[in-house]
């Protein structure tokens, strides 16, 4: 296959992000015909249709999604090249470090690690995006080239986007959370949120005949905790979420068979060898609690 030039990669990314050739051309300062010609050339080199064209614009095909993800990651390597070269021989890093994390990890796990990271490497500028763990989740941000590293809930290795690397940072148990002082919390309605109950808890969940169907599904775990504290029901939440529990709730252990989830990092092979990503992984591994 003929190699795509950096400008061709930028055009693919721009079309995907702008949703059409005309908007991408405006963003890049090019003509619409130049963008269209470039995309056709890239499709010929790759041997696949990358965008579905229509009156509403252009959207990536499955092949296009994969190609655009690789394009972002390749372009990111051009950006990282300078930072890596400047840090050579000094064992230090600088430049932007893009991190994707689910809400409770971004709130409780990342800040102390980033504080230590930037103290040791003042030139690193972290950019953190909170991404819901639904669909592709935080790992999908790495696969799509929008993040250098993700904090993710790790389940079946087969669920990880192909070609990515992952490592476990911690394992945390789920617990029953309920209004303080309630005599029989298992009789309460269940409150839940869409990101809860991944592949690591489904088997346990199905085996519990005392857990009813959720009467309320909230936007996130913080909303669930708030509603539990208001006496609206009980919930089953992991440790990171329970760090926000206040005096209005009690936390009860679910026993020796309680579900446990793995929280870890996900990165791409080309990012895993960079100074900034390696340094952040070290800080995350040293995080306790």
Secondary-structure map with pairings?
Layout: H1 6-18, H2 21-28, H3 32-46, E1 51-54, E2 57-60, H4 62-87, E3 94-101, H5 103-120, E4 123-130, H6 137-143, E5 149-154, E6 165-179, E7 190-193, H7 202-207, E8 214-218, H8 221-229, E9 235-238, H9 239-242, E10 249-253, E11 260-267, H10 269-272, H11 275-285
Parallel strand pairs: 3-4, 3-5, 7-8
Antiparallel strand pairs: 1-2, 5-11, 6-9, 6-10, 6-11
Describe what this molecule looks like in 3D.
It is a single chain. The protein has 289 residues and is of the alpha/beta class. It has helices at residues 6-18, 21-28, 32-46, 62-87, 103-120, 137-143, 202-207, 221-229, 239-242, 269-272, 275-285, and strands at 51-54, 57-60, 94-101, 123-130, 149-154, 165-179, 190-193, 214-218, 235-238, 249-253, 260-267. Strands 3, 4, 5, 6, 9, 10 and 11 form a 7-stranded mixed sheet that branches. It has a two-stranded antiparallel ribbon with strand order 1-2. A two-stranded parallel sheet has the order 7-8. Strand 3, helix 5 (103-120) and strand 4 form a beta-alpha-beta unit. Helix 1 (6-18) crosses helix 2 (21-28), helix 1 packs across helix 3 and helix 5 crosses helix 11. The longest helix has 26 residues, at 62-87. The model has no long low-confidence stretch (mean pLDDT 91).
